[in-house]
Hints:
Layout: H1 9-15, H2 30-33, E1 39-49, H3 63-71, E2 82-85, E3 91-92, E4 148-149, H4 150-169, E5 173-175, E6 177-180, E7 186-191, H5 216-225, E8 255-256, E9 261-262, H6 270-289, E10 293-297, H7 316-325, E11 332-336, E12 353-355, E13 358-360, H8 373-376, H9 381-386, E14 393-396, E15 423-430, H10 446-455, E16 458-462, E17 468-475, H11 482-495, E18 497-499, E19 506-508, E20 512-515, E21 519-528, H12 543-546, E22 561-568, E23 607-613, E24 618-619, E25 625-635, E26 639-646, H13 720-726, E27 729-732, E28 735-739
Parallel strand pairs: 1-2, 2-5, 11-14, 20-28
Antiparallel strand pairs: 1-15, 1-18, 3-4, 6-7, 7-10, 8-9, 12-13, 15-16, 16-27, 17-19, 17-21, 21-25, 22-23, 22-26, 24-25, 26-27, 26-28
Amino acid sequence: MKHTLHLSPLAAAVAAVLVGSLAAPVAFGDQDHGKKPRADKRGQYVTGDFHNHTTCSDGSISLQKVIKKSTDTTDTPWGLDWFVQAGHGGNGNRNCTLVEDATLSTPAYPFVEGKSPSTTWANSIGAAAVKGNASNGTPLSSAANPSMWRWQSIQEYQYPITEYLSGLRNLPVFMGMESVVAGHEHSSMTVVSGQVVLDKAPTNTTPGYTPEGNATALAQWSYCFDRNDADNSRGAGQNWDCSVPASANSTDSNWNATAAKLVPASGTGVGLRGHAKTVEGVKWMAAFHGQASYYVPAHVERAGPFNPDGNNGFNVEHLRNFNNAGPDVAFGFETQPGHGASESRGEYYQDRNSFGGKKYDSVGGTTWGGTGVYGAKVGGVWDALLGEGRGFWFFASSDWHNRGSFGPDDRRSTQDFYPGEYQRNFVMVKAPQGKKQYQSLGQLKPQEIVDSLRTGDNWAASGQLVDRLAFVACAKGEDTDAGDLREAVVAAAASNTAVDVEDARCATMGQKLVVRSGQSVVVAIAVRDPQGTSFSPYTFNNPSLAQVGISQPLNQPVLDHVDVIRGLVTGYKTPGAADYSGAWPDNWVEDQDMARVPAAAKNTSAAVIKTFADGTWKASAKSGIRSMVFTVPAVTQSQYLRLRGTNLPAGVPYETDANGEPMADVYTNAGTPSMLKIKCEVTPTAAIASGATYTGAAIDGCPAHMARYPAVTGPQYVSYDVAAWADLSFYSNPVFIEVKGGTTVAGVK
């Protein structure tokens, strides 16, 4: 119930032999069905992030520094297991390959006195080395201070560094991108064809590194489909052609023959034309790199509803269109955004967007317990997609840019957390057949991470609320022993490995269990609330919980409860049908009536069917593992089950409602100071000098940067990073249950 700095998942897996006795056989009818559920050491969860920024786009630090901050376990304690660097598409004029100081210097990329990550390309490599053309067709090399197209930056500068650092750090580090989306806002994506992770440290001892692999496929996608790429050079001599098989291509009215790509005309309808181009981008990935790419729309609610005449948000139909165009590529969304310490959590806020002469909120108006309304609202957009039987998964991101009012080495933040510091994705990777487990993270390749993300066997958590999860559903037979199944999930959680459910009688996240009509299903869950302290620098009691008389340090959060959410599966909706498209209603904070939500964007069957907490789960004080087992009786309709957990009980003022549902985060957003509600009244024993960089983890009172209302003279209120550390959650992806003769769960293999 307290938290500690956890072992790397792979290190924990190696140590799992010490708890092997927990993996007792489970009596599940081996005479007829063979394999029994148990801990499977070939599979283990590894943590990572695929959405962050450096000075190559609009971030504040170098590529080397963000990788060190995110994967190191010395300079920073959070140490992710895999890392995808993914700045914005388009262009940028800073040379992010330069490092801040000598501590980041490497033989291939040494510190250069007088140069920094903000030094321009012109003042480092020279303007003549910048390739491609400006939007007017003029070569960029003729400009005095050109911005480099992202395709060149990825292909020639960023990719070689990530490959080089993968060997130095013995970690899977590779390239992605946060595309600026035609017709919409942003999407995290990659094409890993050609990219490699080095098995050993590079041997070069002088500046310069020639990579073994390449990111040419990713660079080409950036040129072809990113909204902010106006280059028409076809890759400056690479003769790129953005044609998509079976599409109109050159016969499309938006096709630019010189650029060999779609260039939607501006003005009325640009959003519709842009969306069509983006669907072509997904089709291109599916056609040429179908198993080597992902396309995950980012902070999907932030830019408001879809605007047919601009480039704004995503409605449910756009997510469907992407998934239809490439189900193995567009398999999820980031509905738990980064920017968790921002003055408006996630950078979501009311009246954020203006188009058509009207102001629009971010969809949902704000985040809800740190998660966007599409994922946070039971019965909302995510449940609508799952209710079709789509393999469409929940992801979180850091969206790292900067620390706001603090420097990058400060533990405080008024803007962003580092990748892994607060949010992380836990993805299950399976060792190749014949291997017991991966012996080092360096053995994991980009393709294996992409393959693992696609499976849906992943979950996300904030603030180190939980760091282990095992979740299975098994068809109930005469010999089913729920106690043995409980032991199996406890063993898997203890060793951070999979529950071996390759047998058809069980399924885990991202899989489907096929049962006969009327058969019951036994569900087993184990989560670990780790021991010790979290990565929060704040040691004083959580002010949100103080409202209900709970004394709990911010850096020692406790899992309060786990909800099991169920929804029925009724099949795919038909494009063009009335229930296929629809925008989430505006002004949601003021009017949260689900009757206002169009049929396309909701699943009215979704509901919390079980809540486990102290007294209803089985708890181990020593390991921190909580296990839960229950039966879904006599299943007659295809359905899915997913999990959600939090550190906040029901009825915490301005945090959770009487049913335990997350409330609007406007009450802790410094961007709307008049709405702040939760006071912070603990005086720190020692003030931190103004302008000082705080690197410790022992701030024992309300920090000075917390918002006041009225400003300067008013009391302090929960806001910024304190608000994030006060309000934690985890979300699992679903387990599907398909009834024979009923609705087919068509999107899950």
